[in-house]
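I hope you will forgive my troubling you with a question about protein structure. Here, with my thanks, is the record as I have it:
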Amino acid sequence: MRWLEMTGPEVARAGKEIGVALVPIGATERHGDHLPTGNDTLSVGRLCDDAAAVEPAVVLPTIFTGMNTELRHAPGSISIRPELIMEYLEELCDEIGRNGFWKIVIVSGHGGNRYMIPQLIMNTLDTPKPYVLYYSAGHGMDPEVREKVLETDIHAHACECETSTSLYLFPELVKMDRVPDEMVESSKPAGLEEIYSNVDWFASFPENVSGLPKVATAEKGRILYENQVKRLAKVIKTVKNDKDGPGLLEEFYRRVDEVSSS
């Protein structure tokens, strides 16, 4: 169910009867020379729609900007300050909660969001909320499936894995004649493997592509994607069945008030 396609009364009823809303967030950035800049956004939006068709939830419009300051050097990338994105997400979730949804899942299709969204979730504890906020990395899949399906081991960006999924979901946007001929491995300087810096990503994959995308196929993508749908549908069901979260959040705010008033 897509929020934008529902009437007001339908949204209100879904808030009472389902109570779970999905907020997909991707990014807009260069994915080598063969994948579209909206790859993460297009795929996570589709993923949420398909998972919600298996386990009912209301899906918000996909947010097309994420945490990707490290790709500002790449043509086609759109980078918005992360604090602004987090402020927007919190306002959006507040509005979703005001409409009666007490459980909200932010689903990320972009690896760079893995630091920003947990920080956002912790930030929301500063002000009492009528909803529990959850986070799911929408690009995750079972390790066994990856091992069985994929031929290569390097998967970071526009790789065999991501290219295969894109070939399955939107083949008309994939330019397989532009993929690198050779394996692209991290070019991060030796000795800094265990140290993180603000040039880490640029040093590793300056052309925004990794691995060996030329071995990608739509059939591999189908298997990977169907596994992702299954996993996200399970997340939705788990969130629906979470009876502890709302009570714990209420207790947290009560104890905060006790400390503040003592």
Remarks:
- The chain has a mean pLDDT of 94.
- The radius of gyration is 20 Å.
- The beta strands are 20-25, 58-59, 103-108, 132-137.
